[in-house]
């Protein structure tokens, strides 16, 4: 699916707010999609923190993580409601800065066998 993401800094540059909009294909049916992400660094916990919510559910995802030594790979983990299993489950997202105009984000969650499996991958390209 193609989407648009607009990004801006908030709270005196402490948080990145991203708004995503477009249409998503859900197995043949296309529907509107809107989501909001917040990312910041928690000085007390010494970790990055993020939230995500969208109009496909009423839940909110929370994850926390660290960036690697290159400063280009942010790995976040959490425990969030899994709509497929109807229970709390581990989640993981990995954001990679590829170059000045490109970044990717992979989302992971337990698959049917209980092992972590990639659920989706997003490629962001700066206009």
Share of residues in helices: under 10%
Number of strands: 9
Overall pLDDT score: 93
Task: Give the strand content.
Answer: over 45%
User: Please, what is the oligomeric state?
Assistant: single chain
Radius of gyration: 15 Å
So how many helices?
0
Q: What is the terminal separation in angstroms? A: 17 Å
Q: Name the helix and strand elements from N-terminus to C-terminus, one letter apiece.
A: EEEEEEEEE
Structure classification = mainly beta
Strand order of the largest sheet: 1-2-3-4-5-6-7-8-9
Q: Which runs of at least 5 residues are low in confidence (pLDDT < 50)?
A: none
Biggest β-sheet description? 9 strands, antiparallel
Please tell me what the overall shape is: globular
Descriptive notes:
Strands 1-2-3-4-5-6-7-8-9 form a nine-stranded antiparallel beta sheet, with no helix packed on it. The protein has strands at residues 3-10, 15-26, 29-42, 47-54, 61-67, 73-82, 87-99, 102-110, 116-125. It is built from no helices and nine strands. 7% of the residues are buried.
List the helices and strands and how they pair.
Elements (H helix, E strand, L loop, with lengths): L2 E8 L4 E12 L2 E14 L4 E8 L6 E7 L5 E10 L4 E13 L2 E9 L5 E10 L2
Antiparallel strand pairs: 1-2, 2-3, 3-4, 4-5, 5-6, 6-7, 7-8, 8-9
């Amino acid at each position: 699916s193609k989407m648009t993401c607009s990004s801006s800094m908030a709270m005196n540059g402490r948080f990145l707010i991203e708004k995503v909009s477009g249409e998503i294909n859900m197995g043949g049916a296309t529907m509107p999609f809107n989501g909001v992400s917040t990312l910041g660094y928690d000085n007390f916990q010494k970790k990055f923190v993020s939230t995500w919510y969208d109009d496909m559910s009423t839940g909110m995802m929370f994850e926390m993580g660290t960036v690697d030594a290159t400063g280009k790979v942010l790995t976040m983990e959490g425990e969030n409601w899994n709509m497929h299993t109807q229970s709390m489950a581990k989640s993981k997202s990995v954001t990679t800065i590829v170059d000045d105009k490109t970044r990717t984000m992979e989302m992971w969650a337990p698959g049917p066998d209980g092992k972590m499996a990639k659920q989706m991958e997003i490629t962001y390209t700066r206009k």
